[in-house]
Design goal:
This protein is an alpha+beta fold. It folds into 5 domains: about 100 residues, no CATH class; about 120 residues, Hepatocyte Growth Factor (3-Layer(bba) Sandwich), CATH 3.50.4; about 40 residues; about 90 residues, Phosphorylase Kinase, domain 1 (2-Layer Sandwich); about 110 residues, Transferase(Phosphotransferase), domain 1, CATH 1.10.510. About 25% of the residues lie in helices and about 25% in strands. A 6-stranded mixed sheet has the order 20-24-25-23-22-21, with helices on both faces. Strand 27 and strand 28 form a beta hairpin. Helix 7 packs antiparallel against helix 8. The longest helix is centred in the middle third of the chain and has 33 residues. The chain is globular and about 85 Å long.
Length: about 550
């Protein structure tokens, strides 16, 4: 119940904007009204009302049970519940017959609940049951839990080059509320699609054929649903997808029959056996003909395998170990260190892209250390040792490094939504309260992992908003471990030189006393104040 007496339902982790609400009673009053409204359920009659506390007069009747439904009212008890799926239901419990039935639901369609499906997916009814499907260009985060949302199955790069991307359309799809960052009138849907294609910020567009309005949207995409047969949606949806990964665009996945799968599997096994058999025969003939001992060929294969191990090209998961990159490879990935993302005390960070098997792409952030060799080497080794073996959802992940001669580079996952400092102190909209609480909890979880859950405690030494980065789903992650201090497993404090940023330094840094993990807690307290107030703790321009 909002302060103007409007009863509104919002999904979890949403913004308090009208476009995020999916159920509204429309009982708003003027700001000068002194009445306090509340939702009232008569558990014997089933009447669901909104009324004020002064004269108990009903302001609006959400549901009033009919007379024929109340004929056994002495044996029926009503209960109203906001259930886990976001649907508000009115239940009737017939105590005489021991039957519980649903009398009314708001909304009557589960797909109308915003947030029922996660980011980058849409809700559709299958046999009256809601199910979440990925939008074109996205795959499930977890195929076993389709409601968690979807992630992009291609990387964003060279967005305006036609050979890398294309636009696909999807009809019978509706957005719950307007989440667009751009609206303009355009002649037709082709102009709308082309406008999104050449716009690097646009990943989906909607064209209203009646008003001729084109609306462009960024990721993550949310609140999408499949319309019912009796609904009319005058808009057509367009999505930017990767050319190389685009095989077939379908609204719902088509399950493969067990029979076809069995035939394909048997055929593949037979083909493999034939290849192995023919190869073995040719190998024996070759060995006997030219007199080369076969064990020598085996040694050659072993040497090749060891070579593959050295260059790290076995296709192993990146979680196993840090990858060692060559300087040439990173220079090519960053297009000659062209696009700078930011600059720190020891060097700059550049945006790059890595091409994997199958020509799929992944964005990276490359940190090139440029300061004095001694300081740069110290930060390089500190960063690799501190974060190289850590893995937590609230720490920016280190993918690999480069150490060729004097060149020192670190390769991180790319964080598309910038830093917390930009979010709090930038010119764009400020995060709402729930968003700030979630960010504060994310940072706290990351610090807890560093201090108590690692094999050896790690003191970050430079917790500040500029070192808190936001990923595609606005998850806060701690970055920049160049000043981190590693403790021994049984060590709780250490002496070290002053590290950190003015305004976030704990008092013990200036007292020549041992440093503990509490130094990070002090810095986190300053960050927490800045997050709550959306203000800098120290303004050097004043």
């Amino acid at each position: 119940m909002q302060r103007h007496n409007n009863l509104v339902s919002y999904p979890l982790q949403s913004l308090p904007y009208p476009s995020d609400a999916y159920f509204v009673t429309g009982t708003s009053t003027s700001a000068s009204c002194t009445f306090t409204y509340h939702l009232y359920l008569n558990h014997t009659t089933g009447s669901l009302l909104i009324r004020n506390d002064t004269n108990l007069m009903p302001i609006r009747s959400l549901f009033v049970a009919a007379e024929n439904e109340n004929k056994n009212k002495n044996t029926i008890i009503y209960r109203a519940t906001l259930d886990f799926d976001g649907v508000f239901r009115l239940y009737a419990h017939d105590m005489a017959n021991k039957v519980i039935s649903i009398v009314k639901t708001w909304p009557d369609n589960s797909c109308s609940v915003k947030g029922f499906c996660g980011f980058n997916s849409y809700c559709a009814l299958a046999d009256e049951n809601p199910f979440c499907y990925c939008l074109p260009g996205f795959d499930y985060l977890d195929p076993n839990q389709n409601s968690l949302g979807c992630k992009r199955n291609f990387s964003e790069d060279k967005c305006s080059e036609e050979e890398f991307y294309r636009m696909v359309s999807l009809d019978k799809l509706a957005w719950h509320g307007d989440r667009s960052y751009f609206q303009a009138q355009m002649a037709d849907e082709e102009h709308c699609s082309s406008s999104c294609f050449i716009d690097c910020n646009c990943w989906a567009a909607s064209y209203d054929q009646s008003s001729k309005i084109c609306m462009k949207q960024q990721t993550p995409l949310r609140y999408a649903r499949r319309v019912q047969l009796n609904e009319e949606v005058p808009s057509l949806k367009f999505f930017k997808v990767g050319n190389l990964n685009l095989i077939h665009v379908s609204s719902e996945p088509v399950p493969e029959t067990p029979l076809s799968h069995k035939i394909i599997k048997n055929t593949s096994n037979k083909a493999i056996l034939h290849i192995v058999f023919v190869t073995s025969i040719f190998t024996l003939i070759f060995c006997s003909t030219i007199g080369i001992p076969c064990h020598l060929m085996s040694k050659i294969r072993v040497l090749k395998y060891r070579r593959l191990l050295e260059i790290g090209d076995l296709g192993l998961n990146e979680e196993v170990a840090l990858r060692r990159f060559s300087y040439t490879e990173l220079k090519r990935a960053t297009n000659g260190f062209k696009q700078e993302l930011g600059k720190g005390s020891f060097g700059a960070v550049y945006k790059g892209v890595l091409y994997k098997a199958g020509r799929s792409r992944r964005f990276i952030a490359v940190k090139r250390l440029e300061k004095l060799v001694e300081d740069g080497e110290r930060e390089f080794q500190a960063e690799v040792r501190a974060i190289g073996k850590t893995h937590h959802r609230n720490l920016v992940r280190l993918l690999g490094f480069c150490a060729e001669g004097p060149k020192r580079l670190l390769v991180y996952e790319y964080m598309s939504n910038g830093s917390l400092g930009k979010l709090l102190f930038g010119d764009e909209r400020l995060p709402d309260w729930d968003e700030r609480v979630r960010i504060a909890l994310d940072i706290a979880r990351g610090i807890l992992y560093l201090h108590e859950e690692c094999e050896a405690p790690i003191i970050h030494c430079d917790i500040k908003p500029q070192n808190i980065l936001m990923d595609e789903f606005w998850t806060a992650k701690i970055s920049d471990f160049g000043l981190a201090k590693l403790l021994m497993p049984d060590q709780t404090r250490t002496f070290t030189g002053v590290r950190g940023t003015r305004g976030y330094l704990a008092p013990e840094w200036n007292r020549n006393t041992p440093i503990t993990v509490k130094a990070d807690i002090y810095s986190y307290g300053i960050v927490l104040l800045e997050t709550v107030c959306c203000r800098r703790n120290l303004d050097v321009n004043v």
